[in-house]
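Support request, please re-run this one:
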Amino acid sequence: MAVIDRVRDIVEPLCLDAMLDLYDLELNGGVMRVTIDKAGGVDMTDIAQLTREISRALDEHDPINGHFTLEVSSPGLERALRIPAHYVRAVGTAVKVKLRPGVQADRRIEGVIVSADDDSVFLRIEGAVDDQRFVYDDIEKARTVFVWGPTARPSDRPSTKKSAKAAAQVSVAAPAIDEASEFSDAATERPAPDRAMKVVNA
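Re-run finished. Output below.
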């Protein structure tokens, strides 16, 4: 079983017990990122409590070899879409999509998710006559876009280790504006920062 699957088996029951939704798991460069959510949004109390429980459980079961950093956070207003369930949850939301090279001439797409299933997502793109379908294998990166004010929703038409000692650091710093964004050439105003807690394993 892959490391990420072993971690999921440990973390998911903890989230369910806390009435939280495990939005995403990612292990990248020695950083174990756990993203959680719930109706109305998570707060620092949710994150702090779950961080302690996950840290204890990972110490006990030891699914990750070597030292790692555990980060528990909310997905934020602008969130990455990486698996089909993320797209399904984002139906009716504005998104930016970057396609893989060779799919079509314009690799950067903006639109509103009309529907999504296990294989693909349908986007309503301004100026297009019909909704456009994109299979997930053709998508390199995608994220939701925070829109100030109401967002037009789609119509109702059917759609097709190890550490006994850990130092905890709470960070609620505003994310920097990236003027060379992978999705846009222009800097844009950012929404409120995500809530996050980091535990660095000794």
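The longest helix spans residues 44-61. The two ends are 25 Å apart (CA to CA).
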